[in-house]
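re: that chain from earlier
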Amino acid sequence: MKKIVIASNNVGKLREFAILLAPFAFEAIPQSALGISEADEPHATFIENALAKARHASRAAGLPALADDSGICVPVLGGAPGVWSARYANNGTGEPKSDTRNNEKLIRELAHKEDRRAFYYCSLVLVMHADDPHPLIADGECWGEIVDSPVGSGGFGYDPYFYLPAFGKTAAELTNEEKNRISHRGLAMQALAAKLKAQRAFSD
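^ sequence. v structure.
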């Protein structure tokens, strides 16, 4: 079984990745288990941050690495929080990340806005080594709308406020199976899996 380091310390993401990677022959190891610090995320795009995180973890571990950068984007707010989703309420203060404060700020910013559409977006990168010239890259997005009051106890981040009209519930009310089938991260993993299968079929 091939070992792969997961370039994240986010407990929610690690839980989702463990489920999503279960069908594949990978032994997923969180970077924190190897004493690897989080990489800087200075870039303005999800893909650049994901690639930086994957290369950082792979170089430190000497293993293939899987990284994602993801967040929620609200068109009426110019795409914010975007790549700043996890640190939306920090405003560069260096305070600890807080889902509660992030959600409170998002709801304040959307006060009196009629357009509540939003989408979760994920860029996923797999590198076989730190200097891999051909990383596997996949992405996924999931559209919904922001509601003013949280509903549901599952998920993490903005999930309790992210309402999915097609399901009639928020992302925090979805089962793991439902979420992994339609979420931004689940769709990105499906796309990455297809690329992995195609690559193996060609190389064989």
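DSSP finds five helices and seven strands in the chain.
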